[in-house]
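User: Quick sanity check before I run a bigger batch. Here is a single chain. Can you write out its predicted 3D structure?
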Amino acid sequence: MVECVVDYGWTVEATADRFQVDAKTVRKWRDRFLAEGRAGLADRSSRPRRSPNKTPRKVERKVLSLRRKRRWGADRIAHHVELAPSTVQRILNDAGCGRLDVGDRATAAAAQGPIRRYQRERPGELVHVDVKKLSGIPTGGGWRHHGRGNAPSKKRSSIGYRYIHTALDDRTRLAYSEILDNETGATAAGFWRRAHAWFAHHGITIERALTDNGACYRSRHWANALAETGVTHKRTRPYRPQTNGKVERFHRILLEEWAYIRPWRTDRQRHHAYDGFIHFYNHHRPHGALGWQPPAHILGDNLPIEHT
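Assistant: Done. Predicted structure follows.
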């Protein structure tokens, strides 16, 4: 990660995207390396040398006892033991009993039960739509092709980004996706018209489209495209990306199984492999939520071979 920034001129943001971490994490390790060299890259303990304000063990035990016996919330326990609610919540979280809504009152301590996931009843009832930004590839590839220290010196900022627009059906997990040059309202609207036609070609009538609150999905171009196709627009709650989690998970699959699975030489090479991966995802890749069947199985394997 440090080599990408220091030796090969990647921007902090592009490096963070490549390694799926926050930008401040990249800056932290870069600054440690610049200050201390390779020794600065060793892990350090986060434990402070001394903690004069640490909650006494006796008080922590009392907090946990009240939780188990009384099923009180953090605020009420905090009032009873004269601690800050945030301190009580930390104690509960550290002990693995930070939530009261797992299981019923009688069995919460015994078992948490299976994770519950929602799924629409019919194809097209809800389609998740989102955009994933991906760094471009310099012509000739990077250090993975040329060897460390031998890669062409090119600033990552001059390469730019590519934008993966995706529409994913909630019931079947069937995905239509394109790599485009931007995420403007006009581009998103054009993508939606093509995605709508693609799903219709496969017998899926889209009723609702779920997006986040990005600028392209608040534009008149997007509103007009939905009106033309007769689709109702739904938006996720602010700061709740998990509402659109199915397409977010699909984009994570793309990063792990396509974008970073091998060192591509050029954007063209990576793009050429994209259609093949989308076909593999729709027709052959097992999906846990579908009983380890591919999305095409839900539609009776009647999808054509081509992606577009």
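The longest strand covers residues 127-135.

User: Great, the batch can go ahead then.
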